[in-house]
Specification:
With 501 residues, the chain is of the alpha/beta class. The chain is 45% helix and 22% strand. The protein has a five-stranded mixed barrel. Strands 1, 2, 3 and 4 form a four-stranded mixed beta sheet that branches. The protein has a three-stranded mixed beta sheet with strand order 10-11-12, sandwiched between helices.
Length: 501
């Protein structure tokens, strides 16, 4: 006749067996057993009750409690919302006057026996808890590898995802949109990807991979170029059109080293290794420069830059290139200038040298008219101010006297007269209660522009024809009540001089 195994030994056997097999803590198994015993208790006492079971980790003994929530007394003898788990405050205070609404009351129940049937019933709860613990353990292990490259084997390919086996019961998800264009996988293929994030959903933590993230390109150079891995060369910025083309900006504090050459490698071996891993993605390596204009010129390589105009207020640069390099500078579908803009963090506008010259002459003409008319000065004096970099009446009025005196032909009398006239113009605008700049003559001359519309535009700092030409349809609609068609015609009229022969 077989001898019955003591209850403590039964529970310890289950806990030790599952813990050793699955590699999770004993506390997780105890919690699963307690949840299973709660489920068995509800079968005996009613599914609508709330219960709690506590297993003593030392003795294996366990106690069962029914939980009641103390709620306010209902009005007009209305029934409780959850009568099997709620008790009114007046009823609860009969046993304990100190109880208040929001407290809980526990009533000890007879514990169910943990036998063979109960163990079978607990199996699913234990399995679920173990799976959750396994996922949490995997997520904790891989959180240390976040934003690094990891290797795996394709386990399953679906319409939307590629499931990657990382080994040691770990799986990762590579979404289709995170794969390179035209990239395909089959079960058994080895894959290298960038650990982008660890997300949590109803199924637990999920490891998310990417092959299109900028971080993958940076990490590839970290592996292929020892100087990057050692910190001698620093990757400052990355811009990608995944699988097609990318730009990466590098620099070094070691004056003896060429960071671009080091990343390219002997006969291009290093950059080619990166390109091969990324499906033939063309990688441009750019030298970082703390000067934004120089950095933009480097980023636009190999296009030859003729001139560059920087507007720090709008974070825009106008870049002029020779006509024969225009298509190369812009790139197919605007790709080159788009990547350069992303790399530098500036909006880069690329124009031909001819267009840039025409635009510069137009701006100079408008400025010349503004200075001569508003300051009442000769054209030659206005030309000198423009040549010295003055672009507004405010600058003339408030620039330090010493700077004006450095200009050839400007003595104290001339400087004082210029400053006085400039301040008078600004004061007149202030007295009139309208500091809105006057629309320029060339803006008023644009076909379709009325004086009222010109003043509306000027109130939003659209003062010249060139200002209007650089706006989009949406920009104009934010300022005026024009339709899309009207705004489009207005922009094209303002840009007409760009295309004039």
């Amino acid at each position: 006749m077989s001898k019955e195994i003591p209850q403590k030994q039964k529970i310890e056997m289950i806990v030790n067996s599952v813990s050793n097999e699955k590699g999770v803590s004993e506390d997780v198994i105890y919690e699963a057993l307690e949840a299973a015993l709660v489920s068995a208790t509800k079968k005996n006492h009613g599914a609508n009750i709330e219960a709690r079971v506590h297993i003593d980790r030392d003795t294996g003994e366990y106690d069962t409690f029914r939980i009641w929530h103390v709620v306010p007394d209902p009005e007009r003898n209305e029934p409780l919302e959850f009568p099997y788990s709620q008790i009114t405050v007046s009823a609860a205070q009969v046993e304990n006057p100190e109880l208040q609404v929001g407290d809980t009351v526990e009533e000890e129940l007879e514990s169910v026996e943990f036998g063979r049937i109960e163990a079978l019933n607990a199996k699913q709860v234990i399995i679920q808890k173990v799976r959750e613990a396994e996922r949490a353990k995997v997520a904790a292990d891989y959180s240390e590898k976040l934003h690094q490259l990891i290797n795996g084997v394709v386990k399953k390919v679906t319409r939307d995802n590629v499931i990657i086996d990382l080994g040691a019961n770990a799986e990762a998800l590579l979404k289709r949109e995170q794969c390179l264009p035209k990239e395909s996988f089959r079960p058994g293929d080895r894959v290298r990807a960038y650990l982008q994030s660890i997300e949590t959903d109803t199924r637990g933590p999920q490891i998310i991979l990417s092959r299109t993230d900028k971080g993958m390109l940076a990490e590839m150079f970290n592996i292929e170029v020892p100087e990057v891995g050692e910190g001698i060369i620093e990757i400052r910025a990355v811009a990608r059109d995944p699988g097609i083309r990318s730009k990466i900006a590098v620099r070094t504090n070691d004056g003896r080293m060429d960071p671009v050459g080091a990343c390219v490698g002997m006969r291009g071996a290093r950059v080619q290794a990166v390109s091969n891993e990324l499906g033939g993605e063309r990688v441009d390596i750019v030298l970082w420069d703390d000067n934004p204009a120089q950095f933009a010129m480097n980023a636009m390589s190999p296009a030859e830059i003729v001139s560059i105009v920087v507007d720090e207020e709008t974070n825009v640069m106008d870049i002029a290139v020779k006509d024969e390099y225009l298509s190369q500078a812009i790139g197919r579908g605007g790709q080159n200038v788009k990547l350069a803009s992303e790399l530098t963090g500036w909006t880069l506008n690329v124009v031909s040298a001819q267009e840039a010259e025409a635009k510069s002459e137009q701006e100079k003409s408008v400025l010349l008219q503004t200075f001569t008319e508003q300051l009442n000065i000769e054209q030659e004096v206005a030309e000198v101010l423009i040549a010295e970099g003055f672009t507004t009446i405010d600058e003339v009025a408030y620039v330090p006297v010493d700077e004006l005196l450095k200009i050839d032909g400007f003595d104290e009398e001339v400087v004082e007269a210029l400053r006085s006239r400039a301040k008078d113009v600004l004061l007149a605008q202030a007295i009139a209660g309208d500091d809105t700049p006057e629309p320029a003559a060339d803006l008023l001359a644009v076909e379709g522009i009325s004086e009222e519309l010109a003043r509306t535009l000027a109130s939003k700092n659209v003062i010249t024809r060139e200002d209007l030409a650089e706006l989009s349809i949406d920009d104009i609609k934010e300022i005026t009540e024009l339709t899309d068609d009207e705004a489009s015609k207005l922009i094209m009229a303002a840009r007409a001089h760009w295309f004039a022969e």
